[in-house]
Amino acid sequence: MTFRNRLRLFAVSGLALFTVSASLPPAAASGAPEARHPKGGGLSATIRYTEYGIPHIVAKDYANLGFGTGWAQAADQVCTLADGFVTVRGERSKFFGPDAAPDFSLSSAAKNLSSDLYFRGVRDSGTVEKLLKVPAPAGPGRDAKESMRGFAAGYNAWLRQNRHRITDPACRGASWVRPVTALDVAVRGFALAVLGGQGRGIDGITAARPPTAAPPAAGVTPKEAAAAARRLLATQNADMGSNAVAFRGSTTANGRGLLLGNPHYPWDGGRRFWQSQQTIPGELNVAGGSLLGSTTISIGHNADVAWSHTVATGVTLNLHQLTLDPADPTVYLVDGKPQRMTQRKVTVPVKDAAPVTRTQWWTRYGPVVTSLGAALPLPWTASTAYALNDPNAVNLRSADTSLGFSRARSTAGIERALHRSQGLPWVNTIAADRSGNSFFSQSQVLPRITDELAARCSTPLGRATYPSAGLAVLDGSKASCALGRDRDAVQPGIFGPGRMPTLKNTPYVENSNDSAWLTNADRPLTGYERVFGTTATQRSVRTRGAIEDVAAMAERGRLRVADLERQQFADRAPTGDLVAADVAKWCAALPGGTAVGSNGTAVDVSAACPVLRRWDRSVDSDSRGALLFDRFWRKAAAVPAAELWKVPFDAADPVRTPRGLNTAAPGVSKALADTVAELRAAGIALDAPLGDHQFVVRNGKRIPVGGGTESLGVWNKIEPVWNPAAGGYAEVSAGSSYIQAVGWDSSRCPVARTLLTYSQSSNPNSPHHSDQTRLFSGERWVTSRFCEKDIARSPQLKVVRVHERR
Question: Catalytic site residues?
């Protein structure tokens, strides 16, 4: 029996098809009377809800699938979605005031006003409308555009029937919760695409003004700029990271592939994942996590292939240094010929105040920008200005890439989708398939900065920032310094697929947000341009620990999905393995058991020594000593590397170096003294179980959280918020999010375990506000219900038919 026929049989079987109001999960409204008997034509979908409020959406085509997705996302996340739509409409100042800060999910704008000025400018210029009209593959395909249209209609249909029954206090009764258009959905996708480019420079774009008689703002030296660029790009996605590993069939128990994806994303706001299954009978059947507001599955699996993403090291923007006309600072010279900047005048409505009008300045290279963060000023003087080039500002193809993944039947299909649409702005792709293939590619949209071009065209500033940070600053006065085009690229000024660092069918491929170099430690990737990332440079402790773990797993072999589950929650702290024993031994030998803190006060640290010695080197909730070491290492890691380690980094031994803690470094002693004093002042025992002081509070109840921060190198990364007055780490800002462990057996149903750490809904009145968070706390998984027979057997099955009202 075909899948299509099985689905028809399911629809008319003894499983009742409930009405909208009767079968929506409690996360939605209690039910609008007019929804009980929907009438008329329009878009529609069937949604089957299983445990933890996971929707399985079935529709006849992409517009109807988008409709069901928009409806179901609104039911769980209407407030977060509505807040994001206010952002991309440029209306934050109108509703929330100009000086308040956005949640940074859709840009790095520091205040609502600068966010609005930018997004209003995008709207006024018709930027996204023009991109929607570009024929595929350079522009979005018909299926992607239809899914956007359907998403807007589904969101609006849910809102029309449930607006007055919204239970989430974040937006209950709010005037800014309004219907949206397909353009709103597309602009949200655009915002995500430019996060690392124009989205990073919004404050500098909207603040740019031609110089006046007043002295210009001070710049920085090339050396200072290089250091600032390194810091900027190292933290460009401080709240986003990830681990992922794919194992080839030669390492597994049955010869089929395995994939473990562990993305690290914000736990609140507009970059949360949301879990679902999307099905068009005979056309598409995929399950996974979607970034909120996205119409497609971002990370997931189908019956034959699974994939995940990690934030890549490629630098998604570059600068062009402009030589200005001495008589007019709004005119720049290219090969001696004057080019006048284009003015983009933008007006933003402001709450309880007059509208604000500002002018942005645009060039052939992109907008004039006067800073990339406070530490990297780019002054606009009488002779010089800087323009920001962001190739993702003409990339609206990410949904096409995701749809290509969803329809793929192998890792080769994943690669074809990457080559065809070239739509991923800032991530790597790791995949495995039923046939036993493993795959990695850093296929992302990057400015086509070759090392040759950078050597030939870098300004003095660029000669410092490009080798150090991958940020190119090119001479904009020379047409010969244009970025050019690769023959296999879908748009000018980007690299084509033939240039992408790619590794196939090694025993494992793994990435933890370092460059592609050590994707497999036995097969280092080299030969790519500096803009993609570095080679032969020090790796993070998280990368080092991950390689140690997955290489050992591959060598051991006979791997199963259960081995992936154990890796996710092993909670090993590689930094602890590196230094904890040395710290404990040194601590025990301190004269008088004291160390001097940063304030000059001697602190009795003797009680910390046995705690560190007995610590199990893990960050499980019941680990004693983990909190003490975590707080100590956050301080000790600030010691310069040259002082901190006895054995420096060695490119010939990158997984094992640097190592050997130099306990004689003054900062180490201060770190331990300050930590002991800090915990005692907070009333926290030095040997307290981690979960007693690392937790989240949901509906008034504490939920312990295991895992550890970046500096500890933990696979199960958690970035908690330190609040000793509230008991320690009393919230999580970012970390493990939509996790999946996927393999295959001889059946057509994948063997998949999933976990959405922060649960489906941010509405505290939803039963799906913390149910999976409690699973995460207990290191338990959700068994994926992918096949029809498994969905039908769910003890919590609820089925709903949702309609568009005409």
Answer: 242
